[in-house]
Amino acid sequence: MNKLKYVGHPVTRIDSLEKVTGSAQFVDDIDFGPNLLYAEIIESTFAHAIIKNIETSSAERVPDVVKVFTGKDFPYKFGLYMKDRFIFAQDRVRFIGEQVAAVVARNPKAAKIAAKLVKVEYEPLPEVLDQMEALKEDSILIHPDLGDYPHVPWFFPKANTNVAHWRKTRRGNIEKGFEEADVILEDTYTVPRYSHCAIETHVAVGKFDYSGRLTVWASSQSPNVQRNLFSEALSPLGLSHKDIRVITPHVGGGFGGKAGVTMEIMVAAIATKLKGNSVKIRWTREQEFYNTYQRLGVIAKITLGAKKDGTITALDHKLYWDAGAYVEYGANVVNAVGLSATGPYRIANISIDSACVYTNLPPGGPYRGFGYSEFLFGLESHIDRVAKKLGIEPVLFRRINAIKEGDTLAYGAKMNANGLLQAIEKVSKEIKWYEGKIESEDPVKVIGKGFSIFWKAPAMPPNASSSAFLKFNEDASINILVSGMDIGQGYLTVMAQIAAEILSIPPSRIRVERPDTDRNPYEWQTVASHVTWSCGNAVKKAALDAREQIYDLIERTHYLDRDTIYLEDEKVKSRTKPDFELALKDFVINGIQVEDGTFKGGPITGRGTFMPEFTSTDADPETSQGGHPNVHYTVGAAAVILQIDKETGKMKVLKVVEAVDAGKAINPDLVKGQVTGGLMQGLATVLYEDMRFDNKGKMLNPNFTDYKIPTSMDIPDEIVPIIIEVPQPDGPFGARGIGEHTMLPAAPMIANAIEDALGIRIKSMPITAEKVALAILKKGEK
Amino acid sequence: MPVIQGFEYFKPKTLNEALHLLSNNRGQASILAGGTDIVVQFKEDLITSKALIDIKGITELSKIEIKEDKLFIGACVTFTDLIESELIKNKFPIIWEASKTVGSVGIRNRATMVGNICSAVPSADSAPALLVYEALVILKNKDGERLVPISDWFIAPKKTGIQKDEIVVGILIHIPKKKYACCYEKLSRYEGEDLAQAGIGILAFEDHYYRIAFCAVGPIPTRAPKLEQFLNGKKITSPIIEEAKKILLEEITPITDIRSSRKYRIHMVKLMFERGLKKVISRLEGGKDA
């Protein structure tokens, strides 16, 4: 291939101008006219209770109230991978904040006043707030009907327990592996729940018109999944996919929290009962915390054995997930980890148990990293400790065991091409890993270094797919229709660059349109860091399809062999006839006139679809052997220099380096942006964010006063992003996803740096200044 | 999110007008200055009022000025006003220092120091600074004016010595006659905006007299009389600091809450006291911050 002109270049984001000028329209900016209605939600005040009665009559009498809805109005289940959620609670509530009823009114004030008048009578049940409690045989059941819930074939719920799914992976001989080990270390690591904290809260508007069509405007990462789940849940009302239209304008951050369907189901359902009106629900910050998805909490028991020469011989990784009240999406997080909890290591003998446990806390669901941050905290902490026990330098220990292309994965398939060793080497060099300890000039402070490697695969159904339409306009500018979401990562720009490269048209002449399920073709969802790879392939195919149509036409009209022509600077050129040149704008819509005065051709319109055709979840449920559930893994490495005040426990990141193998960085600036943003999000989870619940299951800090995410004042002094490019053979121009991965190493490398600086191992997140200071005090008391 | 309760909004141009409005709405009115606390309280239905009296239109309340030997900070003076005031920065450095730690830029542009002490949360950043300056709170009703020493102002969490017919028009601070140095040390969870988990104001005169005040380590912000008594007249040495740290523990009653544990608060207050005191002594001697 010739030198790339647009791919691999730091093209300016195509949506930057509208965003920086504030002209970008978000759902809440759209004017829905005077018939817009507002819904206020009545929420459960108990973590676990039977609903005895709901009294709505006084609320209905409030002026401007249109109607009050309860679970009786919509006795339908929904869910992505398992149908375990309800549009409104039916006979019981399972977490504090769960939607029980909605008041719809002509203005938000009336809705709010009336909502206070809805009286719900509960019969409280014992609540289970801890996954280890919920696992006990005598635990109260949160979903007594679990055995009847429809679910995807790769889930294994256990009826009459609180176990919604249990992923088992077995490979080699675990007993033999531990026998071979010279050192065995066993310990437990705890990671609590986290919240995405997207700046734009969830907001959705639904409208059911007199033609029988339901339109939903949503702040979402998943327009097609939304349409599909609305259609499934509302099919008893006679709605089918063709009747439902989901429009997703700009989104103010997602991080997984706006994947799938959460609160949007309510506007979709309510709208069907209020024909002709639009109905809006906008979550408050509090609701954003406790009634969308939260990142699942986990308790991980790790036993790792290794030989004196540094070879890891066995890993037993048991993960018990606090998955919350509903796991229709969260159970797949558990599943993904159950397949990949070896981390990026070559291990012959493996036993992984990943258990998805219902609790009476808010639903756990997708969050950037999809479970990998959670298990890597324990595993990458453990790797450092085992290395120390063996007397092997921890980065060398990682290099000895780092997975290579062709190595066998936990589930039996082969590892893809990857630049893990390159990443380790480049990070070590940039952080001066081997140049010894850094002494602090301030005697009160100490400085430590920490290292971590990481990997992640997209977690998707085996047949998750993408598609794209590409339309030429009269002036040879292009509109591309896709259904992925630009959630800040720069996806639209990357799609433009891919088409630009194939068709030799600058990205500034290409618009990539945000999803509208009526207009744009299918995309599974913008999750799993897969859209650059998957939708990128679809866009590339659409561009190639258009190019073939152009070449066909030139062959037919100018009798030039297609092997001799090429596109350059918005023109068709010929290698054999240097004076031949035909501007695209002269024919991409109106065709080419031939000798007899007639026209040939017509509008050039490209179409591309992509589905990985080598994946399968058909595997032995006892071992997970036999299938090919993951398409590929993206790997990387990172290291940190951390300064710690020995008295206050306060920490400051002096320098952080991260290398990620993008396969091909289609836009290096955007990759670097992901590294900075991902690291900040990861550092926040380890240093600041601290979700608290009381002993009744009520979240105590659903606000930024007490749930701290970093400000610009908390950014590390120096962040060094490093891009590794070992091409992904089936990726567009060799690209693979990197979006989620950038946050994965943050927590364990901080824990490792703390041990390096203070000799103290902290095994639970978050690692706040307070926790560090109290650990130092405790050590001093010994 | 809408405010669902109804109230009448007034924006008087003079203090007299405001005081009459307050009197006419006997006990049913709230005062709006910066609004960073009260708007939240309305939104969350924590308070109800028939009338909201916005005092931002009363120009005299926006003044920062020296009257004879006293500094006047009007009720509508925002933290940003204080931070940007050369007078405050040069002559009342602990007010300047404490103001910079309040909330975020956006909050400081709206929030007022008087509002901060009227909200009277235990973590009020203004309180230690005003306590060590022995500030006076100026209250007016339609019949006259009274002055309340700041040490008598805080009664309980979110409760002050104000009467229902009164408006706090400002704060009065006597300019210390002796040479002194001071600092405000605040414990927060990160570098961004945060409520104090503990705060300590320290003021030291060159003749070895000390004023020390806390916030967020007891139900109300207070001075530390026993600690001051112990330190007064003494030159600061390491053994003195160690002894003082023990006495300090008798002055505070920190709790465990969502923001911090009692244990960490105690640990940090001792540390902040030591670091702060050393810093103040260094400043007093014209040196750099300790």
Q: Which key phrases capture this entry?
A:
heterodimer, A: 782 residues, alpha+beta, Aldehyde Oxidoreductase, domain 4, Aldehyde Oxidoreductase, domain 3, 3 domains, 7-stranded mixed beta sheet, 5-stranded mixed beta sheet, 30 strands, globular, B: 290 residues, Uridine Diphospho-n-acetylenolpyruvylglucosamine Reductase, domain 2, Uridine Diphospho-n-acetylenolpyruvylglucosamine Reductase, domain 3, Enolase-like, domain 1, 5-stranded antiparallel beta sheet, 4-stranded antiparallel beta sheet, 12 helices, 14 strands
Description:
Chain A has about 775 residues and is α+β, with helices and mostly antiparallel strands. Chain A has three domains: about 15-25 and about 475-590 and about 605-610, 2-Layer Sandwich (Aldehyde Oxidoreductase, domain 4); about 30-125 and about 205-280, Aldehyde Oxidoreductase, domain 3; about 295-405 and about 425-460 and about 620-780, 2-Layer Sandwich (Aldehyde Oxidoreductase, domain 4). Helices cover about 25% and strands about 25% of the residues of chain A. In chain A, the strands form eight sheets. Chain A has a seven-stranded mixed sheet. A five-stranded mixed sheet of chain A has the order 9-17-16-15-10, with helices on both faces. The termini of chain A are far apart. The model of chain A has no long low-confidence stretch (mean pLDDT about 95). Chain B is of the alpha+beta class and about 290 residues long. Helices cover about 35% and strands about 25% of the residues of chain B. Chain B has a five-stranded antiparallel sheet with strand order 4-5-10-6-7. A four-stranded antiparallel sheet of chain B has the order 11-12-13-14, with helices on both faces. In chain B, strands 1-3-2 form a three-stranded parallel sheet, with helices on one face. In chain B, helix 5 runs antiparallel to helix 8, helix 10 packs antiparallel against helix 11 and helix 11 (about 240-250) packs across helix 12. The longest helix of chain B has 23 residues, at about 260-285. The N and C termini of chain B lie far apart (about 45 Å). The mean pLDDT of chain B is about 95. The chains are: A alpha+beta (about 775), B alpha+beta (about 290). The interface of A and B includes residues 284, 648, 692, 769 and 774 of A.
